[in-house]
Amino acid sequence: MRKVLTGFLIYGLPIPLLLYSLTVGPSQGLVFSDYWEWGGAVLSGNIHESSTKVYMLNNIIENVRLPRVLLTFIIGAGLAASGGALQGIFRNPLVDPYVLGISSGSAFGAALAIAFPLLHINVMAFVLGVASVVMTYSFAFSNNKSSIVAVILSGMIVSGIFTASLTVVQYMSDPYKLQAIVQWTMGNLHHASWDKINTAALPVGIGIVGMYLMRWRLNLLALGEQEAKAVGVNPTADKATLVALATLTTSTSVAAAGVISMYGLFIPHLTRMMVGPDNRKAMPANIFFGGSFLVIIDNFSRSLMDFEIPIGIFTMLLGAPFFLFLMKKNKINWV
Amino acid sequence: MTDAAIEVENLSFGYGKAPILERVNVTFPTNRFSVLLGRNGSGKSTLFNIMAGLQKYQHGSVKLMGKERSKMSFSDCARVLGFLPQFHKSVFPFQVKDVVLTGRAAFSAFSPKKSDMVKVGQAIEELGISHLADRPYTELSGGEQQLVMIARVLVQNPSIILLDEPTNHLDVYYQTYVLEKLKKLTENNLTVIAIMHDPNMAFLYADHCYFMKDRTVVTPASEFDYHASDFLEYVYDVTFTTVLVNDKIMVVPERKIDKLIEPTR
User: Fold this and answer.
1) Which chain B residue's Cα is nearest to A332?
2) Which of A222-226, B89-93, B123-127 is predicted least confidently?
3) A232 vs B92: CB contact, 8 Å cut-off?
4) Could you give the CA distance from residue B119 to residue B236 in angstroms, rounded to a whole number?
């Protein structure tokens, strides 16, 4: 029973959820029969001959809601998969894609692009996201060796540097730009468009497929470096590949949708509760459930109030208490 | 003497200027249970790390089944040699069979094959831990975890296994259980070499004992007379009394304090 239920949550949910999510939005005066009519018109291929209302609805769905729902799904899947992969690599369940400094690096890059429009905002966010990971790693390595603690500490330092720099940019910006920067750092899926999907889909897709292919190797890495060498595998190459894939995925999604906090941290915990720690099952679960769950959160964030609640705030508000609950329930003491 | 599984000749090694191994010469025979003993810091673990390929070396030679260690790739080495490091703890509650399965990672790149699963079944059967297959590794006792890690090395199908202190932290039941199993493995064409601290346990189970003192392997004056208390005293810097138990020589360290000090009430 439990197996069927988790199976449905992971693999059965995405398609109906994506279809349902197309009907969620702030547009007033649309009722179920309109969607019904729209569905019929799309299936029979004569959308251009249908009523003005259905034609308008088609426009909303095609150009606003569909790209948004798809982008949300892709980003949710990418963040959850990266989170699961990084928790395994660093053998630390408290790690998420942002501990390497990606989020603050990308946020600083985006802020720079908003304040001084030299390069496109996505490009800047991506470049600085990658730069922060490179910095985190180069700080953490000494004598060609790096410990997990060193990586996490140097991630904090890099985050600190970029957060401070971000504040400087905010301080110097005029109020309009400041507003844009602040919105961006809170996560901004409402800017979703086919353009964004076109730029984000390929890098995130490569990242997700790569991490999916390496899901069993991840089990080996999660047992430890010595343990991998003991059975004849040099873990350095595997680790580097996975970190690169996670960085590509995360910085692309930060570039497309801003900072979505805590998401890559708590989804891997949820999926581990559902299917266990074996990454051969947990990785696909992260990808599918991670995508679905962000779509669900986004549905709430755009329908709960008259205005949109930025999704980054929503995930933080959901994630923090959930995480505390997990810590108490499982009596976690990772030392 | 039978063929050499591992042959170490004139091996010297050090970090920076501090020497850790100096001109080590030792040969471990095939299909025997050999034990390496010595004080902390005498270089046992470093010698093991070099033989297992975790540490590179420049001076001297290490041959695995006749082939120079430094010229073998990681996966070539994995076919010949399995290594059990000293500390292992898992953060994630992987099932025992999934932990054991990772021992096949050098041979199956992206996902394990059916034959890999069969090997896992055989290995945990051989060590008598089939009943643990579905349990989370993190919930097992230290002795059970050690057996799981030994099974993980066995699924590699190596001809030599190196174990760094396999009986460390185990109670007497698991110490004897692990050593009996290791001894038994040598009957199936496997060379077992282990680091141990208890000379009596080594005398009970090992076919050969080797001792390290001051960064090199030392041998007693007359070959294989390592039970001699003066030799052991030289190795351990402790005075021993030798006793005979069921025709086996055992050693007991001599107490230096005449009387235990009574605690004041």
Assistant:
1) B91
2) B89-93
3) no
4) 41
